[in-house]
Design a protein that fits this description.
Layout: E1 2-3, E2 22-27, E3 32-37, H1 48-57, H2 64-73, E4 79-84, E5 94-99, E6 105-111, E7 118-119, H3 122-131, H4 140-148, E8 155-160, E9 171-174, E10 185-186, E11 192-193, E12 202-203, E13 208-213, E14 221-222, E15 228-229, E16 240-241, E17 245-247, E18 253-256, E19 260-265, E20 268-272, E21 274-277, E22 287-289, E23 292-295, E24 304-307, E25 311-313, E26 317-318, E27 321-324, E28 328-330, E29 334-344, E30 348-360, E31 364-376, E32 380-382, E33 388-396, E34 400-402, E35 404-405, E36 413-417, H5 421-456, H6 463-499, E37 505-511, E38 516-519, E39 522-525, E40 530-538, E41 541-546
C-alpha cells in the first residue's frame, strides 16, 4: 500500500492530454467535503449520480440536492462541496469491475482515495481482480498505463479472453475442372465454338489428379475467468480413387497410371483411356468401349457407338445410335434420318439436331433443333446465330432457353418442362431401398462384432457358424457399398426436383402461334406471335411474362 499524494494537485488545467471529470473526498479537521473536477480536453463529464452512489457506498452523509446543484455549476474550475460537519475516515483508492455476460472481457473503473487515503499498488489491484473472478487475460499495458498516470472515473478494458479459433476440415482438392456444366463459347459472329468446350479433363500418366488437404485443428478459447471454450471438432476426409489410379507413398495424392480422361463419380476419381478413331464405318464396325471415344471424322448411318465415358465426334453423325455413360459432343451436328438416337448419362452438345431422338441425364445444348424429340433431365439451351426449335417435342426438367420457338409455317412444336411424376416415384423407391438396406446393416453389425470378439479372444467357431459369419460379412460389405450408390442417386434426383420448381421457358426472339407450352400438368397453346418473353406456371395456369 502506498500513501497517496494529494490527488487534488493532479489537476492541471494547462496540462496535456484529455481527462474525464472525477472527484475526491477531502477529510478536513471540522468537516468532510468532496472536490469535483471538470473534464478536460474532450474527456467525459462527471455525473453527479456517480458521486452520490460512491458516497452512499462509503456511508458518508451528504445533501443530495446540494451535490447536484454543485455538479451543474462545474465548468472550467474544480468545485468544492461540503458534505457534513464531521471529519471522515481515510478512504483507500478503489476499483469497480464490470464483467461481460459472456465472460470474454472486463472493464475496470478506478476511484480516487481521500486526500489522506492510500493508493493501490500493482499487487493489490491484481488481487482485487482475482477476488472478482478474473484470472486470465489481464491487459498489462492498461494496468501499467494506470499506474503511471492514475485516471479516475474512466472505463478501461482490463482483461480480454481468448476467442476460440475455428479449425479447418480436411478436404480433397481435385486438380482438374469439376464443373460439369461447361457451355460452348459464343463467337462474335453469333456462331458457337463446339471444338473448345473444356468438357474433357485430360491427364498424362504420372499426373497428380487429386490431393488430400489435412485438417487444421481448432484452437480452444479461454474466458477471463479461466474457463476453457472448446474448439469445434474438425471433419476427416478421404481420397477415393478408382481404375487406372493409385495413391502416393504417403497416401496424400492420387496419381494417374495411364494417359486418358479423368472421371469424377461423386467423390471417387478415376482415369479412362480414350479410344481414338478416324470414322465409325465399315472399317470399324460397331464400337463398344469401356472408356471414352474420340472420333475425328463421322459416324455413318446404321452404326452404333457405345462408351462408358464420353463420346466426341468432330464430324457429322448420320442415322446412327450413340450411347455414352458421360457426355456426347458432336461438333458438326446430327441428321438422325428418323432413326438416329443419342443416350447420354451426362450432357449432350451438338451443332444441330434434325429428325433425331436425344435423351440426356444432364443438359442439352445446340444451335438448332428440327423435328426431333429431346429429353433432358436438366435443361435445354438453344442459342447461337440461328437458335431455333421447330417441330417435335422438347422436354427438360429445369427449363428451356431458346432464341426462336415454333414456326410461322405451323410446324407442330411442343415444349414441356418440370418434374415428371416418374421422378417422384424413383425418389420414393430409392428411399425405401435405403431404409431396407440400413435395417440389414443394423441387424448384421452386432452379430459380426460378437463373432469378431470371440475370434480375437482365441475361441473357435463351428465350421457351419464360421461359414455363416463369412457370408454375412460379405453381404454386409456389399450392402454398405450399395447404400453409398443409392445415396448418390437420391441426392442427384432430389437436387433436380428442387431446381425444377422455378423452371421456365425463355424465348429470347420469337415464339410462333400453334406452339404448345406444357409446365407440369398444365399447358397452353400460343395464339399469336410473341417476342422476348418467358412462360411460367402461375396459380395453376401457364402465364406469359416479359423478359
Amino acid at each position: 500500500m502506498e500513501t497517496a499524494a494529494v490527488v487534488v494537485n493532479r489537476y492541471d488545467p494547462n496540462g496535456g492530454g484529455s481527462m474525464n471529470g472525477y472527484f475526491q473526498v477531502l477529510n478536513e479537521e471540522t468537516q468532510t467535503s468532496v472536490m469535483l473536477y471538470p473534464a478536460k480536453d474532450g474527456g467525459e463529464e462527471l455525473e453527479a449520480k456517480e458521486v452520490a452512489d460512491y458516497l452512499t457506498l462509503q456511508e458518508i452523509d451528504f445533501n443530495l440536492p446540494s451535490l447536484y446543484a454543485a455538479a451543474k455549476k462545474l465548468n472550467d474550475d474544480p468545485v468544492k462541496v461540503v458534505l457534513n460537519n464531521q471529519k471522515g475516515r481515510p478512504i483507500q483508492e478503489m476499483l469497480k469491475v464490470r464483467i461481460a455476460n459472456d465472460s470474454m472481457s472486463a472493464t475496470v473503473r478506478f476511484y480516487a482515495p481521500s486526500d489522506d487515503g492510500e493508493v493501490m499498488d500493482r499487487e493489490e489491484i491484481l488481487s482485487d481482480l482475482k477476488f472478482q473472478g478474473i484470472t486470465y487475460g489481464i491487459c498489462e499495458d492498461v494496468l501499467e498505463r494506470f499506474l503511471r498516470r492514475r485516471e479516475y472515473c474512466k472505463d478501461m478494458e482490463i482483461a480480454l479472453g481468448r476467442q476460440k479459433v475455428r479449425g479447418q476440415d480436411a478436404r480433397v482438392e481435385f486438380l482438374f475442372n469439376t464443373d460439369m456444366k461447361a457451355r460452348p463459347t459464343l463467337q462474335e459472329d453469333g456462331s458457337v465454338d463446339f471444338f473448345h468446350l473444356n468438357t474433357v479433363n485430360s491427364c498424362n500418366k504420372g499426373d497428380v489428379i487429386a490431393r488430400l488437404i489435412p485438417a487444421v485443428p481448432a484452437v480452444p478459447g479461454m474466458t477471463i475467468r479461466g474457463e476453457i471454450i472448446p474448439g469445434t471438432d474438425t471433419k476427416k476426409a478421404y481420397l477415393r480413387y478408382g481404375k487406372n489410379t493409385q495413391l502416393s507413398e504417403d497416401g496424400s495424392e492420387v496419381i494417374a497410371l495411364v494417359s486418358g480422361h479423368i472421371n469424377l463419380d461423386g467423390d471417387r476419381v478415376s482415369v479412362s483411356d480414350v479410344l481414338m478413331l478416324k470414322n465409325v464405318d465399315n472399317s470399324t464396325g460397331n464400337i463398344d468401349y469401356y472408356g471414352s471415344v474420340q472420333i475425328s471424322g463421322r459416324v455413318c448411318e446404321n452404326f452404333r457407338v457405345k462408351a462408358g465415358g464420353n463420346v466426341i465426334v468432330e464430324g457429322v453423325v448420320e442415322g446412327a445410335v450413340i450411347e455414352a455413360g458421360g457426355d456426347v459432343v458432336i461438333a458438326r451436328g446430327m441428321n438422325g434420318m428418323g432413326k438416329g438416337k443419342i443416350m447420354a448419362g451426362g450432357n449432350v452438345i451438338a451443332k444441330f439436331f434434325e429428325n433425331a431422338e436425344v435423351t440426356a441425364d444432364g443438359y442439352v445444348d445446340s444451335d438448332s433443333i428440327l423435328h426431333s424429340t429431346v429429353k433432358a433431365r436438366d435443361a435445354v439451351h438453344v442459342g447461337g446465330k440461328r437458335g431455333f426449335i421447330t417441330g417435335g417435342r422438347i422436354y427438360a426438367t429445369n427449363g428451356i432457353d431458346v432464341k426462336n420457338l415454333g414456326s410461322n409455317m405451323g410446324a407442330d412444336t411442343v415444349v414441356e418442362i418440370g418434374a415428371q411424376p416418374s421422378m417422384k416415384l424413383q425418389i420414393q423407391d430409392l428411399q425405401n431401398e435405403l431404409q431396407e438396406g440400413n435395417k440389414l446393416i443394423r441387424q448384421a453389425r452386432p452379430i459380426l462384432r460378437s463373432a469378431s470378439q470371440k475370434i480375437e479372444s482365441g475361441a473357435s467357431l463351428p465350421e457351419e457358424q464360421y461359414t455363416y459369419i463369412r457370408n454375412l460379412y460379405t453381404l454386409y460389405r456389399m450392402q454398405k457399398k450399395e447404400l453409398i450408390e443409392i445415396n448418390n442417386r437420391l441426392d442427384k434426383l432430389q437436387n433436380i426436383l428442387e431446381n425444377s420448381k422455378n423452371a421456365s421457358v425463355i424465348v429470347r426472339g420469337d415464339v410462333y402461334a400453334g406452339t404448345r407450352i406444357v409446365i407440369g400438368d398444365v399447358s397452353m397453346v400460343v395464339k399469336g406471335k410473341m417476342s422476348h418473353c418467358r412462360f411460367v406456371r402461375d396459380r395453376g395456369d401457364v402465364k406469359m411474362r416479359g423478359l
